[in-house]
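Is 5CA placement plausible here? Inputs below.
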Amino acid sequence: MKAWTAPDVPTLDGAAGRLRIHDTALDELVDIVPDNDEARFYVCGITPYDATHLGHANTYVAYDLMYRVLLDCGYRVIYTQNVTDVDDPLLERAEQTGVAWEDLAEDQVNLFREDMTALRVLPPQHYIGAVEAIPAVVELIESLKLTGAIYQVDDAEYPDWYFEVHRAPGFGRLSKLTDDEAVALFAERGGDPDRPGKKDPLDCLVWRLERPGEPSWESRLGRGRPGWHIECTAIALQYLGASFDIQGGGSDLIFPHHEMCAAEGAMATRQPFAKAYVHSGMVGLHGEKMSKSRGNLVLVSRLRASGADPMAIRLGLLAHHYRTDWEWTANALTEAQQRLTRWREAVARPAAPSAEPLIAALRHALRNDLDSPAALAAMDAWASDSGDDPSAGATVTEALDALLGVRL
Ligand code: 5CA
Ligand code: ZN
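Reply from A.M.:
I modeled the complex. Tokens:
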């Protein structure tokens, strides 16, 4: 799939260094040390049945910050993101609204591209839809079959294909849930623990055989369509290879999605799926997680249409540490707009404090688990200090663009 247009990223005078970031599996900060100075990461993309809301934007801006920090550390970066362009929620929404599922997906992916472009989010090099990944999915299921971890559910009508999760080395180390908690969350988040004929309630669907009225594709497994988790496992392995540096997404994906992907990946390659698992916090509205299914959404496109500066939206998101859960309020946008104005005035001064200590502070904050609130505070301090460097404003403008993705 086509991604979106990349914004320019100014290169700053180098300061080699490392990103330290929180790994969900170890529950501690880890150093990212890419092989051959090539950082490979995967971030789960949207299910395109409704437009980009601020929760999505928060997640993709968080990983954009990570991308920018990796670039600034001097690495080449390979970033892959999927689009879940065939799955139950998309098909259900299409059915309810009387729109063809392909058209719904295409329209929403287009809106997402526009929102990402406006927010100056760097596009992934590989932007891959589930539909276009079907050959890779089928191939992965075939290779998992050789390990004996794939079976057909005992169902005369629809003997769908499942993955035996407990066969995988390390299953459960990401989410660290008890069996009861895992089963409950699995049911809540698209799983089918109660389906008769499964070997274990947590086994996950990898290939769903054709049902009347549902889209399906010919394959050696029978006509059907991919399960959710195997889609990301197959795309990540195809475009990043085994044991890539970082798997990312919002914290609602830790279980079951990332646990299942990690299990499938580890089983197929006999290596860890990813070296680190990074999760961003949830953005809520009126006390609940913002979600398409709840309908309590603040859409990026609507904010933009009402005149909000995309850079203010971005600053409003960056004001929160990526791992915290927080609530969106209209006030957040007003404050971000005021900060943006202060910063724009500060870089336009004929003379300002020197840029180098600020750039060092920005780097220090961001390389330490993407501490954007500390980075914003450093810039606030620079903006309110006085100095006599006539070229600092221009240098700071470039640095904020490169590191924070905020173009003043
Ligand atoms: N297509 C799958 C991933 S393979 C999916 O979860 N799609 S999604 O459209 O539901 O979510 C896309 C991304 O936004 C995911 O990383 C998810 O964790 C994140 N996300 C969804 N809702 C929120 C929210 N309220 N706050 C923060 N991030 C969110
Ligand atoms: Zn995913």
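Short version: Residues 14 and 72 are 7 Å apart (CA to CA).
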